[in-house]
Amino acid sequence: MDFDPELIRLLMDTFRVELEEQLQIITDGLLQIEKGIEGENRQHTLDAIFRAAHNIKGAARGVEVSDVAEIAHHLESLFSVLKRQNTRPAPEVIDLCLESLDRMREAMLAFSDQKPAAFDLPSLIGRLDRFEKAQQAPVSELAPAPAGPVPATEPVTKNTQVEPASMAKAETAGVQARNEGVKINLEKLEKMAAQVEELQGAKIEMEDHMVSMQQLRSQIQALSGMWKHAAQSRNPGSRADSLPAEVETLLKSTTDRILELDNAATRMHRNMRSSTNHLSLLSVSMLDDIRMMRLVPVSTLLRPMIRSVRDIARELGKQVEFEITGDEIEMDRVVLDGLRDPLVHLLRNAVDHGLESAEQRTAAGKDAAGRLAVRVRGEGSHIVIRVEDDGAGISAEKISTTALRKKIVTQAELDAMGHDEVLGLIFRPGFSSKEIITNISGRGVGLDVVLSNLRSLKGSVNIDTEEGRGTTFTLRLPLTLATDHGLLVKAGGAVYAIPTTSVDRVLEITPAEITEVEASQVLLLNGRAIPLRDLAAVLQVESNEPFSPEQLSVVVVSKGWDAVAFVVEDVVGEREVVIKPFRYPLLSVRNVTGGTLTGNGEVIMVLNPSDLVDSALRAGTSASLGRIGKDEETAQVPAILVVDDSITTRTLERSILMNVGYDVTVAVDGRQAWDILQTRAFDLVVSDVEMPNMNGFELTDKIRNSERLRSTPVIIVTSLASEADRKRGIEVGADAYIVKGQFETKVLLDVVKQLV
Predict the structure, then answer these.
(1) Is the pLDDT of residue 320 over 80?
(2) Which CATH architecture has domain 639-755?
(3) What value does the mean pLDDT of the chain take?
(4) What are the residues facing 383 on neighbouring strands?
(5) How many angstroms separate the CA atoms of 309 and 344, rounded?
(6) Which CATH class is domain 484-623?
(7) Cα distances (Å, whole numbers) of residue 156 to 159, 186, 523
(8) pLDDT tens, 27-69?
(9) Domain 298-478 sits in which CATH superfamily?
(10) Beta partners for residue 690, in sequence order
(11) pTM across the whole model
C-alpha cells in the first residue's frame, strides 16, 4: 500500500522526537546504574531502559528504519538479561551501551539523508551479542529476581512497570502532558508570535500618539489661557471696548469655541489614555502567553550534558561527581539553544583543567572525586546559571604572566587593571593557560566564544575563584529574546537605534579627553584605551554638521572583549522597540539588523552592534573624529611643505596629499625649504633626512629653534630605520617618524590628519 507522502513525513518527524526522548531515558538510566544504585531502585531503572529500547525497536520497524531497529533489538536483549539478574553491569558494558545509543543517532541521520551508515553495524551487533552471552549465568547462580518483573518475551506497557522516583515523575508528567495538551507546530507558533509582535508595535505607536496628543492638548490649553487673559484684561471705556457688535459677537463665539476645543481635547486625551492602557495590558498579556508557549525546561539542555561530563572524565582518568539542580525551570527555546555552546565550553574546561586528578586532590586533602555542579534559578525576567567546581581555582598571577607572554595586553594596561579585570583576560581571543591545546580544551581556550555568545543572547558572565578551593562562573540570561530596548542616537542627520544590551556606557566628553595612540584616536576608560570613531563615518553617511568644540556625546558599544566609542551628534533617548528583520532582497545589510517603526510611521534603522564594532575597527582612523567645530581661520585648507631631494618621492607625496584636498608646496632640500618657510606659513612640514645642503634633522632643529616656526609640526619620512636615527629624530623635535620601507599611503594620511 502506498502511503500519503505527507503522512510519511509526519510519521518520520514524530519518530525522530520519540527516538531522542527514549535515547535520553536510556542514557539517564545507564548513568544512574553506573553511579551504583542498588536493589529495587536498580531494578526499576533496568525496567525503564529495557522498555525504552523495546519502544524504539517497535517504532523503528514501523517506519522501516531498519538499522535503528536492529541495534535497539540487540540492546533490548542485553537489557533483558541485566533486568532478570538485577546486577550492576561492568564499565565496559555501560560504554558499549552508550556507544550503541550514539550509533542509533548516526543511523537515523544517515537514513534521513538517504546515505549508508558510516559505522560498521555487524561489528557493533557482534559485540552486543558477546556481552549478552557473557552476562548470562546459570539460574542457580543468579540472585532471586524481585517479584513482578515482566518476561522479556512479553509485550511491555507503561502501566505494568514501576519507575524509579525521578523517572516515574518525569513519565507521569509526560503522560499528563499528552492527555491535557496538544503539540503545536513551531512554524505556526512563530507566525503567531510575529502577529503578537505586530500588536506590540501598534501599542508602541499608540504611546507615541499619546505623546503627540498631550503636546496638542498643552498647546490648546495655552491658547485658551491666553485668550481668557486677553478677554479679562479689556478695560471698559477703552477703544477695544467700543468695538462693533459684530466683532464683539465674533470674539465671544471664538472664546466659546476655544473652550469647547479645550474640553474636547481633554476628553479625547483621557479616552485615548484609557484605550492605550487597555491595549498595552492586552498586548503584554498575549505576548507573555506566547512566550510561555515557547518555554522549555532547562533539563532538555542539561540532561545530555551528564553523558558528556561522564565521557570526558573517563577519557581523562578523573573521578567527577556531577550535580544538577533547578533544571525544571523553563526558558525560551531560542535562548536555551544559544546557551548550549557556552555551557559545553565551561563544563569541558572545568573537568579538563579545573578539577585535579585523584592523586593531586588526595595530596591536597580533598576527596578523590571532584565536584562539579550546575545550579539554575530564576530571578524575575532572568535566569541565573552557576557552574561550580571545587578544583584548583584560577591564579590571577598566572593569567597576568600568560597574557603578557602572548602579548594580549601590555604591561601598562595590566598595571591599570583590577583583580576582576585580570580574571576577565581569560575571555580574550587567543588566551590559553596551557602550552598544549588538547582535544578537550584548556581553561580559557574558546572562552572568548562563551562571552561572545552570551552577549548575543543579551546575557553576561562573571567569575568568582579562589586558588585551591574552586571556581564559579555565573551566567545571567533573559527568559526570552522577543522584545528589546534601543538607545536612539542621531548621526549623519538621521536617527538610529542601538540595542541597549550592547551599550556599555553613554557619556559626554571634551575634545581634550581624546588621546592619540599610534595615529589613532582613543578614549581612556578605566585604564583601557577604547578606539574612538565617528558613527556617521562608520556608516558611510555624509554629515556637514560639525561636532561641538566643547562637548561630545559618546556611546560605547561592545562585542565580546572588543569595544568602540562612537561619537554621535545627539543621544535622543531610550525606547522599547520591536525589531523587524529585512526580507528579500535586503537579507543581509552591513551594520544594520532590521528596522522599527515610530508612531508617525517613520522607519528607524536598528544597528547591528557586532557588525558595527567590526566595521569601526576595520575602518581604522579613516572613520576617526574629524568634524569638531573650528573657526574660519583653522577651517581653511591646510598648507603642507614637502621636502625631498628625490623627484619620485617628492611627486608621490605631493600627489597623495593633494588628492585629499591639502595645499602642497615642494622643496628639493633643507636649505630651499628653510628659505620658503621665511616667506610663508605652513601647517605642516613633511621632510626626508638624507638631502644635500641641509638634511632633515638639521631643518627640523632650525624649525624648533625658531620662535615663529617652533609650533609647526614636522613629519620625517626616511629610509633610515635604525633606533639611533629614530632617537635622533625625537631629539631634534620631530612629531612623527615614518620609515619608507614601511611606507603606506594610509599611514601618511593618518599621521597628517592628526597633526594639521
Answers:
(1) yes
(2) 3-Layer(aba) Sandwich (3.40)
(3) 76
(4) 378, 477
(5) 9
(6) mainly beta
(7) 9, 32, 70
(8) 888 888 888 888 888 888 888 888 888 888 888 887 888 888 8
(9) Histidine kinase-like ATPase, C-terminal domain (3.30.565.10)
(10) none
(11) 0.53
